[in-house]
Amino acid sequence: MAMRARQKIRAPRKGLASSKGDDFEANWQALSGSLKRIHTKDASDLSFEQLYRNAYNIIVTMRGHDLYERVKQLEREWLATEVRSSVDAAISPSLLFAQDALDIQDQANERRAAGERFLAVLRETWEDHQLSMGMITDVLMYMDRVVVADHRKPSIYVASMALFRDIVLRSPVRPDTKTTVADVLESTVLFLVQLERSGQIIERPLIRHCIYMLEGLYETITEEESSKLYLTSFEPAFLEASKTFYQKEGQRLVESADAATFCKVAMERITEEKERCASTLSTLSEPKIKEVLDNELIKRNIAEVVNLEGTGVRNMLDQDRLDILRSVYVLSSRVDNKKTPLTAVVQKCIVDMGQEINTLATAPAPAPETTDKKAVKEKEKPMNQQTMSAIKWVDDILALKKKFDAIWVDSFMSDQVMQSAITTSFSDFINSNPRSSEHLSLFFDENLKKGIKGKTDSEVDSLLDNGITLLRYIKDKDLFEAYYKKHLSRRLLMKRSASMDAERQMISKMKMEVGNQFTQRLESMFKDMTISEDLTSSYKDHIRKSASHDGKPVDLEINVLTSTMWPMEIMSNTRDEVQLSCVFPREVESVKQSFEQFYLSKHSGRKLSWQASMGTADIRATFQRSNGKTARHELNVSTYAMVILLLFNDVAPGESLTFAEIQSRTRIPDHDLIRNLQSLAVAPKTRVLKKDPMSREVKPTDRFFFNNDFQSPFTKVRIGVVSGSANKVENNDQRKETEKKMNEERGASIEAAVVRIMKQRKTLVHSKLMSEVLGQLSSRFVPDVNMIKRRIESLIDREYLERVGEDPPTYGYIA
Amino acid sequence: MDSTPGSSEYVTLVSGDGFEFIVPRSTACVSGTIRRMLDPSSRFSEAVTGRCVLENMSGLVLEKVCEYLCYNLKNKNQTNVPDMEIPPELCLELLMAADYLDT
Amino acid sequence: MADRRQTRNQIRGPQSALTDFLASNNISAAQISEDYQRRVREAERTAVADQATNSTEQNDPEGTSESPEQRKKRKRKETAALAKIKQSKEFARRKSRRTGEPGDDDDSMARDILSEQSRPMPGQLENCEICSKRFTVTPYSKTGPNGGLLCAKCSKDQANDDKKPKVKKAGPRIGRRQNQSNLLDGNAQQGASTLVESCIRKVADNINDIEEFGDLPSSLLHRLSQILSKRRALTPRTLNLFLRRELRSIDIYDTAKLETDDFQKIFTFMPDLNNVNLRFASQLKDRVLDYTMDRELKIEHLQIDSANLVSDTCWQRLLVKLGPDLKTLKLSNLDTSFNDETVGVMSRCCPGLRRLKLKQCWKMGDGSLQALGLLPSLEHLSLDFIQETDVEKLLDTIGQVGPRLRTLSLEGFPTADDRILEGIHNHCQHLTKLRFTSNSNCTDRIFSKLFTDWSNPALEFVDLSSTRDVDNANADGPADAIGLASQGFVALMNHSGRALQKLNISSCRHISREAFEEAFADDRVYPKLRELDVSFHTIMDDYLIGRIFRCCPSLTKLIAFACFNVQEARVPVGVALIGGLKAQDRIVVEGDQP
Q1: Are residues A355 and A479 in the same domain?
Q2: How far is the C-alpha of A658 from the C-alpha of B80, rounded, in Å?
Q3: CB contact (8 A) between residue C196 and residue B95
Q4: How many of the other CB atoms lie within 10 Å of CB of A720?
Q5: How many structural domains comprise chain A?
Q6: Are residues A372 and A437 in the same domain?
Q7: Is residue A216 domain-shared with residue A252, that is, in the same domain?
Q8: pLDDT per position in chain C (594 positions), as tens?
Q9: Which of A9, A10, A59 sits opposite C217 (nearest CB)?
Q10: Is residue B4 part of a domain?
Q11: Backbone phi, psi, residue A33, to 5°
Q12: Chains meeting C at 3+ CB pairs closer than 8 A?
C-alpha cells in the first residue's frame, strides 16, 4: 500500500442529479407520473431502473422523508378519488337499506345481485391495490431501506395498506350516513352466508377473496396477528349473526322435526360450517363457529332431542337405528364429556328392558316354544318350566347385552363413559332380580349338561364367556357359588356332565373373572372325584386279591367326598334331625362294610357317612311273563330304588308289600321313599312295580307288587327319580332354605372379616370399620349394613370386641 | 428459479456508457435491486425485455459488479470467504453501485 | 532481547485503546510478551529431545534415505532443473492460471512440473508405487499418492477411492485470525460478505487517500464512521469527509482525536443537523455548545459521551434552548457535570423527550431520579447510576413513567429490591425491552412473579445478567434463590419466549439444569431468538447447547464464556458460538441438524 503512488481516490462522479433543490421536484414529477401509470396498469414501458434511480436520487439528497410523505399523499389522493368513486358506484341502495330481506324473494334476489356486483368490484379494487403497491414498493425499495430504517416508519406498503383501510373501507359511503364500505361489506357477506345456509348456491370464491382482504389488513401499523381486520370487525359480527341463526334453527327443529331430522341437520350444519370456513371465510374462524354451533344448536337442544317422545333415543334403541344413534352420540360428545342426557336415557332404557326380562322370567313361562321339539324327541324329560324360563332369562339378557354391545361399538364409538353407564345399568337390573344367581347357574348347568353337545370348542368357549359376562354383573357372587356348587355336585355325582373339559374350562374362566378363592372349593370337588376314581379301582384290586368273595361280587363304584367342600345339606334331606341310616340289603351291606374296612385301613381316623340318596345302581331284573317266557332287563336305578326292588326278591310272586312295610324294612326317609316309589310304580314307562290303588299319590296304605308284565323296548332301562335329581329352579321353601344358609354363611364371613380387621387395627371407628368390611367382602357379595351391625354386636357380646368410645363410636379388639 | 415462460436464462446488464454484460439470470439476481427489476410479476420493461440499463454506472464499475455477482454465487455455501479483490481507486464508486444495487 | 526492548521503547507506534488501558492498569505488554517467550523456550527445550529422533524423516520430502553427499548432489541438480523450468512457457502459462491461489510460490510449482517431467513415458517399465509390481506404463496410468505411477489394478482401486470422497474444491479461505475475529463479532454467516461491506472496508483501508465522499448516502457514511472509529482512524482530517452541508445527521463514534475546533467545525458546516451523536468527546467545551446555540440548530436527537469539559451551566443553557425540540437525549460518562439540578432543568424544559439514556454520570443522585418522573412523554428510559440511590425514589419514578415505557433499562441499582420488580409488574404494560442487571437483592420468587400473569405483552429484548447472590462462603446461594434462578427463568421463557430476540442471562448462576431442560424441552420453540448469552453457567454442557440450538431456529449468536462443559458442541451452520474451551475449530457444518 505504502509503495503505491499516492493517487487520490476521487469521489464517484455524481449521477444524473446534482444536489440542487429543484432536482427533487424534477425527480418527483417523473416518479409520480409513473406511479400513477402503475395504478392505471399502464406500466409495461416503464423502466424499473429509471424509477428506482429517481427515488434513489431524491433519497441521496436527503429528501427521503419528503419522498415518503409525497408518496403517501399520492396514494391517499388516488384512493380517495379514483378508487373510492368506483367502489361507491358499486354500492346500490338495496345494499344500504335492505335489512334481512331474505323472506321477500324479489328483494333478496335483487340484493344478492347487487351484493355480488359490489363484492366483485371491491375484490378487484383490492387486488389492484395490492398489485400496484407491490410494484411501487419494489421501485421504492431504496426508500424503504433508508428512510424506514432512519425514521422508524412502517414500510410504504404497510402505510398504503393502512390508507386503504381508512380511506376505502372506513369512511362513510355517503356524506349523509355513518355506514362505511366495511359495514356494507360485512352485511353483504353475512347476507350471502345467510342465503347459503338457506340452501342457495353462492359464489364462494368471490367472498373468499374479499375475506382475504380483511385478513391482509390490520388495525395497527405493527400488524400483529390479532389485529387483523377480519378478527377485529368481521368475525365478531359473523359469529353474532350465526348465534342468532342457530338459536332460531334449533328452536324450529326441536318444535317441528323429529330427533333423527335434528341430528341429520345438525351433522350437516357442522360439516357445512367447517367447509364454509375453509372455502368461503377464514380457517381462523373454524374453532369459533364450532363453538357457536355447539353452544347454540346442540347444547341448548340435545337433552330435548334425546328425550323426544316417539322419535328420541328410546325409539332409536328400540328400532336399532344405529346410524342415528351415532349422530346423537357425536353431537352429545361435542358439547358434554359426560353426555348426560344420552347416558340417562340409555340407562333408563336398559333398566326398563331388563325389568321386562325379569318379569318374564318370574311370571309363569308360556308353553315351550317349538325349538324345544328336539328335546322332546330325544325323550328327555321336558324341562321344568321354571328352569326353562330361568335359562330364557339368561338368554334374553345375553341378547340384550349383544344388542347394546353392538350399539356401543357402532354408535357410541366404544366410548368409555358410555360403556360404564351401560355396565351399571345391566348390573342394576340383573341384581334387581333376586334369583339372578340361581338362574345363571342353571344356565351353566343346562349348557354343561346338554347345550354344548355337538358344539365346537370355540362355540363352547363363547357360550361360556357369555355366561361369565353376566357373572361379572352379579353382585352376590357367594350366592352364585352356592348354586353353582350345588348344581355342579349333581352333575359330577350323577355323571351328567357332557364334557369334563368344558367343566374345567368353566372353572378356569371363573377363576380369571372372580378369583382364586372363589373357585377353590369347586376345584376340590373335582379333586375328590379323581381321588374317588383311584379309590374305586384300588378297591376293586383289593377285592380281586382277597378272593374271599362268594359268587357274584357287587361292583362298587364309590365317591368319597370331603364334606366341607360339597354341599352336603342338599344331598341329604335329613334337615338336621338325626335319622338312622338306610338299611341296605345283605349283599350290599357286606360290600359296604368291606369298603369301609378297606378305606379306614388306608385313612384311619376318618369317618365315612353314606349318602344313599345320591347313588345309583345297575341291577338285572328277571320278569316272568304270564306266557311262561322270561324277560330280562338291566335297570339303572337310584340306590334307594335298588334297596326297594331287592326287597321284592324275598317276596313271593303275587304278594305285595305296603308302603309302611317298605318303610320299616328300609328306613328310607319318607320323602325319598315316596319319590322313588313314584318313579318305580307311577311313571308310565318305568313301572317295574304295580301299585294298588293305581293313583299318582303314594299313601302309607298303598300296596306294591312286582310287575312281571313290565314292558320296555330296551334291554337297559334307566329309571330316574321323580324330580330331585335334575337341577331345577328351587321352590319357595327350598329358596328360603338356601337364603337362610346363605345368610349364615355370610354372617360367618362378616364376622371373620371384622375380626381380621380389628386384630390388625386394634381400635377402629365404626364408620371406618364398616367401610373396610364392605371393601373386603364386595368381591363376593354386597353385605347388608344391618347384618354387619348385628354381627358386630354379637362379637361384642361374645367379647371379641369392646366399645372403647362413643363419639364417634369406636371399637377395640380384645386379644 | 425464474423460469417462467418467456424469461430466458441470460439477461443483459448495460452500463451508462453503453457496455453490455450478458450474465446468467441467477447471477444477476444476487443483486436485490436487479432481482426485483427482473421479477416476472412486476411487468416493468426490464422484466419484459431481460435488459437492465444501469444509467448511473460506468462500464468499469459494472464489470467489477458482475465479477462480484459471480464471486458471491461461487462462494455461496462456503465459510470464511475473504473479500473480493477491489482496486482502491474504484472502491468509492463501487461502494455506491453496490448500495444502489442492494448487493 | 534486552536491546529489542530498548528499540521498542524508543519508537512508539500508534497506541491502541487497549494499550492505553493496560498501561493505566500497570499491565505491561512487554512483560506479557517476555513471559510468553520464556514459556515457549522452556517448552521447546523439553520438546527437542523427542523431536530429535524423527526430525530427519520429517525433513526429507522424498522419504528415501540418502547420504548427505548424495543429497547435496541431488539438490544441486534439482536447482538447475528448476531454474530451467521456471523459464519455460509451460511454467508461465501455469503461473498465470494459478494466481490468486494461496501458497503458489514459484518453487513449488516448478517442482511439480519437474516431477511430472521425470515420469517414465508410456511403453516404459516401472515399479508400481503401491504394490511394487513391475508393469508397463500406459498413457492412462494413474499417479499414486506420493507421485509415483500405479499398475492397472492399483490404478483402478485408486480411482474407486477417489470417487468416494468427492472433496469439494475449497475456495480461497481467510486466515484463522480473521475468522476468529468475525466469530467474536457474532458473524458466522456463509458465503461472501456483501459487496457493500467489502467496499466499505476497502474505503476504510484507504481512507487517507480519499478526497471526498461525494454523494455517498448517509447510511453508508454512518457505517464508515463506525468502522473508522473502531480502527481509531477518525482524525481531524477524516472528519472533514463527513461534513456535508445537506446532511441532517452526524454519528462519530470516536471523537477522541478531535480538537475543540473540530467540534465547532461540525456545527459550522452542517446547518441542518437534526441528529448529533458524538462519543469520546473529551475536547467538547462550553464554547462549542454555546456556538451551537447561537446557530439556532434544530437538534432533536442528541447523544454525547465523555464530554467532561462541559459545565453544568452550559448543559442547562443547552437544555433550555433545545428543550422544546429534543426527542432523544443520551449522555454517558460525565464525571464532573450534569448534576441533580441540571436533570431538574431537563425534566422541566424537555416535555417532548421520548428517549432518555443517562449512563455513568457521577453527579446524578436521588434528586435526578425524582426529576425523571416528571417527563411526560418518556417511552424509552435507560439508567446506569454511580451514586447509591433510594429504592423508594426509583419506585416512584417507575410508578410515574412506567405505564408509557417501551424500554426500561436499569443498571447500577445495587440496592434495588423486590419492590422494584413488583413496581415494574404493576406499572409497565408496554415494555418490549427490559434490562435489569447486577443485582443481588431481588429474589427468584419475585422474578417469577414479575413474569407471571403480567399484562405486558411478550418482551423482545431481555437482559437480566448478573442478578445472583454473591457470597463466596456459600457458592450455591441461599435456599430461597436470589436473582433470576430456575423459577424466574422458566416464567420468563413462558411469558416472553415467543417474541424474544435477544436474551442475556449470563452469570445468573442459580438457574438449574432442570430449568434449562424444561425451558428448552422438545416441544419448545423460540422462533425469533437471535442472540443468547449464557456465559458463566457452569451447568451448561454440550447437551444443553444442543437443546438450545434445537429450540431456537433463528439463533445466530450464542455466547458461552466460561461454560467449561461445552467442549464438543455441534454448531449449526450460520451460528456463532462464542467462548467455550476450544474456541477454534468450532464451526461444524451440519446439514442434517437433528
Answers
A1: yes
A2: 126
A3: yes
A4: 18
A5: 5
A6: yes
A7: no
A8: 444 444 444 444 455 666 655 555 556 667 778 888 888 888 887 776 555 545 444 444 444 555 666 667 767 776 776 677 667 666 666 655 555 444 445 666 666 666 556 666 777 777 877 787 888 877 777 777 676 777 777 777 776 665 544 444 445 566 667 777 777 777 777 788 889 989 998 999 888 888 888 878 888 888 999 999 988 888 998 898 898 888 888 999 999 889 999 999 999 999 889 999 999 998 999 999 999 898 888 899 999 999 999 999 999 999 999 989 999 999 999 999 999 999 999 999 999 999 999 999 999 999 999 999 999 999 999 999 999 999 999 999 999 999 999 999 999 899 999 999 999 999 999 999 999 999 989 999 999 999 999 999 999 999 999 998 887 777 777 888 889 999 999 999 999 999 999 999 999 988 999 999 999 998 899 999 999 999 999 889 888 999 999 999 999 999 998 888 888 788 888 888 888 666 445 455 444 443
A9: A59
A10: no
A11: -60, -45
A12: A, B
Range of the domain at B81: 10-101
Q: How many residues does chain C have?
A: 594
d(CA C167, CA C163): 9
Q: Which residue bears the cell 484507504?
A: C206
Distances (CA, A) of A460 to A378, B68, C113: 21, 87, 94
DSSP A689: E
Tell which of A227, A262, A293 closes a domain: A227
In a domain, B5, yes or no: no
d(CA B46, CA A141) in angstroms, rounded, equals 16
Nearest to C533 by CA among C565, C487, C501: C501
Q: What are the pLDDT digits (tens) for C23-42?
A: 555 566 677 788 888 888 88
CB contact under 8 A, C211 and A9: yes
For residue A804, the SS3 value is strand
* Any domain includes A545: no
The strand pairing partners of C210, in sequence order, are A9
For residue A180, give the 3-state DSSP assignment: strand
- Chain C within 8 Å of B30 (Cβ-Cβ)? no
Q: Nearest Cα to A464, choosing from A452, A453, A476?
A: A452
Q: Are residues A318 and A350 in the same domain?
A: no
Q: Does the CB of B91 have a partner CB in chain C at under 8 Å?
A: yes
Query: Domain range for residue A791?
Result: 734-813
* CATH, residue A452: 1.20.1310.10
Looking at the fold, whether A310 and A354 belong to one and the same domain comes out as: no
Q: Quick check: B32 contacting C, CB < 8 Å?
A: no
For residue B81, being part of any structural domain is answered with yes
What CATH code is carried by the domain that includes residue A785? 1.10.10.10
Q: Are C218 and C246 in contact (CB under 8 A)?
A: no
**Within a domain: A541:** no
Structural domain contains residue A525: yes
User: At which of A667, A691, A718 does a domain end?
Assistant: A718
| Neighboring chain C residues of B80 at a CB cutoff of 8 Å | 173-174, 178-179, 182
Contacts with C220 from chain B: Cβ below 8 Å: 95-96, 99
Interface contact C211-A146, CB threshold 8 A: no
Q: What percent of chain C has pLDDT over 90?
A: 43
At B46, which CATH number?
3.30.710.10
Residue B3 counted as domain residue: no
Contact present, A598 and A545 (Cβ < 8 Å): no
Asked if A99 and A217 sit in the same domain, the reply is yes
What is the count of structural domains for chain B? 1
Q: Are residues A257 and A363 in the same domain?
A: no
ipTM: 0.92
Same-domain pairing of A708 and A739: no
CATH number, domain at A706? 3.30.230.130
pTM given for the model: 0.66
- Domain-embedded: residue A190: yes
Q: Do B45 and A56 touch (CB under 8 A)?
A: no
A303 burial via Cβ count (<10 Å: 0-12, 13-18, 19+): middle
More confident residue, B78 or A376: B78
